[in-house]
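Running this now, will post back.
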Amino acid sequence: MPIHSMWDDFPEIKDELAESYAVMEKKVHIRNKEVEQVIFDLLRSGGKLLRPAYFILFSRFGNTKTQNHKQITHAAASLEILHMATLVHDDIIDDSPTRRGSQTVQSKYGKDIAVYTGDFLFAVYFGLIADSTESLSTIRLNAFVMKRILLGELDQMHLRYNTEITLRQYLRNINGKTAQLFSLSCLQGAKIGQANLAVTTSSQHIGHNIGIAFQILDDILDYTKDSESLKKPVLEDMKQGVYSLPLILALRGNKKKFDPFLSKGPNMSDEDVQIVSDLVSQYGGVDEAKQLAKRYTDKALKAIRLLPERPEKAVLYQLTKQLLHRDY
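Update: finished.
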């Protein structure tokens, strides 16, 4: 059972993550063995199970004595399945060759199988939601978040190769994608754990800030690390016309320096991409992005410090600090 080694530092939730992983394995068995193998490859490709982890931690801020264990593990599994489905579809749109150091589904098996794989995972996700709750408000919440994620994808597509993209548009896009999933994980955990109103309200904001900081840091690592350490192609977003925060910040006031290269759009060479990457660092895009990531990280950590004193609070703080100061 390939639970990421990072959870060795958090034995308090490692076993529960392993149970959620087992639920996922059980739910993806289908007659089509080719697609089934694709999904098992995804499950075993080294995902960190971060969203289920945040869900589990926040679920423990309520009355743990009244909680249904099956409900918790199935809801946690649903969040990782939703995350996987969005990754499969992202890779189709971006035509990405690798993820987590392995070939993407669309690269290995073709776009047809990748589309069906992503669609099947969405179906599994809703099935797990149905297994985990009878609450109509919870089902509505998940449907709303899925809609926001898809709208975020559409907004991102609309802004491809747009050198006029603003910080506000960027933040709106990642709020509709990465931040929505982290926010859902924290909020749904607090709700399903029957935490009080103050914790439930705070959980949503904490998840939002974690998600924003997480995505900004991902974008920074794209400019500061290599493909081998990240286990995915670096600067792939730039090649696809998806301009992330360091580039957006460096463009402000320096657009003429970038125009000779970015104006080539999808015809940019690897050399052009490297020149743009160097310009981003030269004009402070990476440093400014780090400052903004720190602001969101500090917001999340400050809100966690204000949570009620529970054993999970220290774990939540340590995990968040480690996650948002990572270099991989």
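The beta strands are 98-99, 102-103. More later if anyone needs it.
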